[in-house]
Recover the amino acids of this structure.
């Protein structure tokens, strides 16, 4: 088992957290405390779920939960761009990262579900 911090999915999840932290810093105060805090917490949860999936014998439940939290991040980002709290370019950069996380998590989930240890 590799260290979770060395996994490609963890690295992209960390990059997403760093980007979200940067984006939410420029949000108006009211939204920074609501949407911004929620986005950051969801991204931290993604990192925690990568760790849990890596450490668990049955990875599938953790990966399913990770994908659910990823949907929340994408929905909140969409709301942020629709409310003009972030630019379309910032939204595109964040969605590119969420797509990478989602593809890796789906692949990992399929592999884990197919293996006999799952």
């Amino acid at each position: 088992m590799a260290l979770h911090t060395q996994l490609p999915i963890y690295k992209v999840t960390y990059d997403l957290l760093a980007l979200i932290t940067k984006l939410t810093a420029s949000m108006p105060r009211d939204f920074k405390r609501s949407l911004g805090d929620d986005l950051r917490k969801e991204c931290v949860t993604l990192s925690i779920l990568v760790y849990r999936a890596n450490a668990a014998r049955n990875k599938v439940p953790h990966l399913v939960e990770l994908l659910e939290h990823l949907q929340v991040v994408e929905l909140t980002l969409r709301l942020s761009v629709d409310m003009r709290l972030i630019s379309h370019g910032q939204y595109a950069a964040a969605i590119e990262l969420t797509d990478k996380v989602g593809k890796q998590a789906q692949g990992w989930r399929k592999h884990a579900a197919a293996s006999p240890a799952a």
